[in-house]
């Protein structure tokens, strides 16, 4: 009986990460499929098959990447970028999302300056990102993202003395937030893999 229980637990330990990984991959592919898939269903129903939208999106991404690598393509894309940046409301959304994308992919930040701790009443804290100094002396503009959709969150104006800088990069902090703490970094900037924390050397 103990052997059967052991085999069952071993099977569970194996199948949970595998099944969850496949489920997440399926959700990602389904999301990408639904970007262009409905257009093919509507305008080209005779040639549409599941997966066409996904592969078309991949080809479109590669095409845009190709355009960014040549002079005329960069000029063409810069025109659309400029249009987004000049539209009221949309320009703030675009700048914010672009900053997060640049930070995660290239490690560059355009709007997040530093990472800070924002203390909560129960003794815990959350991670915030300084976006600049407020008009009031000694006050900071801080953005606290929600999880897992970090394109939304809370804007706070807080006294500088109530914040504590965290000595990690903005990129590392964003990864921590997006992964709900599964990826974490020490305050000295050293990455820590929690899955290895139980291993003894």
Description:
With 201 residues, the chain is of the alpha+beta class. 50% of the residues lie in helices and 18% in strands. A five-stranded antiparallel sheet has the order 4-3-2-1-5, with helices on one face. The protein has a two-stranded antiparallel sheet with strand order 6-7. It starts with a helix and ends in an 8-residue tail after the last strand.
Brief rundown of the structure:
The protein is of the alpha+beta class.
Q: What is the CA–CA distance across the termini?
A: 33 Å
Structural classification: alpha+beta
The overall number of domains is 2
What is the overall pLDDT average? 77
Total strands: 7
H/E element sequence: HHHHEEEEEHEE
Helix content: 40-55%
Number of helices: 5
Labels describing this entry:
single chain, 201 residues, alpha+beta, SH3 type barrels, 2 domains, five-stranded antiparallel sheet, two-stranded antiparallel sheet, disordered C terminus
Topology:
Blueprint: H1 2-43, H2 52-67, H3 71-86, H4 90-106, E1 114-119, E2 125-133, E3 139-145, E4 153-159, E5 164-165, H5 170-178, E6 183-185, E7 191-193
Antiparallel strand pairs: 1-2, 1-5, 2-3, 3-4, 6-7
Helix pairs in contact: 1-2
């Amino acid at each position: 009986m103990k052997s059967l229980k052991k085999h069952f637990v071993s099977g569970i330990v194996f199948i949970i990460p595998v099944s969850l990984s496949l489920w997440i991959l399926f959700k990602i592919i389904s999301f990408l499929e639904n970007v262009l898939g409905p257009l093919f269903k509507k305008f080209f129903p005779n040639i549409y098959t599941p997966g066409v939208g996904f592969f078309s999106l991949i080809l479109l991404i590669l095409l845009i990447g190709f355009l960014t690598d040549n002079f005329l393509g960069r000029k063409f894309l810069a025109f659309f970028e400029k249009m987004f940046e000049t539209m009221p409301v949309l320009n703030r959304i675009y700048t914010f999302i672009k900053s997060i994308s640049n930070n995660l992919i290239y490690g560059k930040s355009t709007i997040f300056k530093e990472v800070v701790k924002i203390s909560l009443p129960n003794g815990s804290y959350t991670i915030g990102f300084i976006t600049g100094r407020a008009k009031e002396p000694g006050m900071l503009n801080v953005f606290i993202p929600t999880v897992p959709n970090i394109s939304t969150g809370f804007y706070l104006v807080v006294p500088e003395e109530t914040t504590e800088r965290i000595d990690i990069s903005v990129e590392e902090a964003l990864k921590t937030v997006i992964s709900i703490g599964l990826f974490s970094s020490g305050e000295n900037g050293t990455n820590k893999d929690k899955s290895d924390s139980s291993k003894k050397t």
